[in-house]
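question for whoever is on the cluster today: can someone run the full assembly for these? two chains, 420 residues total. i dont have access anymore since they changed the login thing
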Amino acid sequence: MKLILALIKRDLTLSMRQGGGVGTALGFFLTVVVLLPIGIGPDQALLARIAPGALWIALLLSVLLSADRIFQQDYEDGSLDIMTMGPVPFEMVALAKAVAHWLSTSLPLAIAAPILGFLVNLEPSAILPLAVAMVVGSIALSLLAAIGAAVTVGLRRGGLLVSILVLPLYVPVLIFGLSASQPGAAPGLTTASLLILGAIALVSLVVSPLASAAALRSYLT
Amino acid sequence: MELKAQDLTCERGGRIVFRGVSLSLKPGQLMQLTGPNGSGKSSLLRLIAGLNEAPTGSVTLEGGGEELSLGQQAHYVAHQEPVKSALSVEENLSFWRDFLGGGDVDDALAAFDLSRLASYPAGLLSAGQKRRLALARIVLVPRVLWLLDEPTVGLDTASLERFVKVMAKQLDDGGMIIAATHVPLGREPDLRLDLGRAP
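^ ran it for u. tokens below:
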């Protein structure tokens, strides 16, 4: 466990010092959210109706933007080779790197998104449900992105492929995430959607380390 | 304890690089691996480390840790250095200490005369200094088998002497070293393995 924490701590330090991860993602998110009302026009009622969906899509795209970097550097400089020779199962290494991506990129975005919602006229009553749904959903987003990143780690310009591979996996997160963030929905629907979103996150938690580690191993050998 | 490799074959991209390579190594022995470019020196080291899979043959460490894989009892130093530019020299080593378990960072830094550079960002190191940092990792965490791929590239004379000292200590402590190199290691190897001509 200590080893895993050491790895997460290193990845967080790296992402903070290099400034690439969350900075780029947050900048991209902000760009989408600022440009959207300008593109749609000054119809406040329309904006308020599409606000949760727009914020979710911006979140998805921002996470994807930084996804291909999860394993890239460690693969190129040989750190991953040495991590396979460590005392912990390689699956735990893959999980730790996905968790570090969540902490450094997805979680800050999920927290910032509802706050930035005022730019797209998000109803105040929708802020809390959206925040809860996004924090839960962002876990799944990072874990699924890790699978895509691992599958394309050895490829130059793998970013495009990551998006295409991960896209279908993101659709359920988007559907249930959106359904969980509608405050005016039928009673029970929000809770049920949130529970399904949680289930998707938990399934990803199991599948992602196994799939990522298997994909990375096939590149290393 | 004895490292035994039998009848190893290496295949890369459908091409046989070498076949029927066997070796055995006892504690305190240094093996020098020679052969022209492309003869499979690096591949052989990766096979032994368990990083690649061999289509035929087997590698075993007799008398080693029962529950550990060979890779978990070996250090592998590759061409590229697993050094993070954004971390300081000391942070780089501290991470590997925490991740691989054990060792004293200060001693490892001193072994390659890096103490003065401890708080320096690793991105500012020269090629030779990065090499020393990569080699400091194998001093940091004690492991019985060292697999070194061109370990002396970029080292100056003083660092080479330190490296020879470090190797001597590993061998005296009952460790084993396999080094792939074209140039003299600064210490007469106990065994030589020539992978011969590239196919």
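summary bc i know u wont read the tokens: Chain B is about 30% helix and 25% strand. Chain B touches chain A at residues 49-53, 68, 71-72, 74-76, 78, 80-84, 86-87, 91, 95-96, 98-101, 137 (CB under 8 Å).
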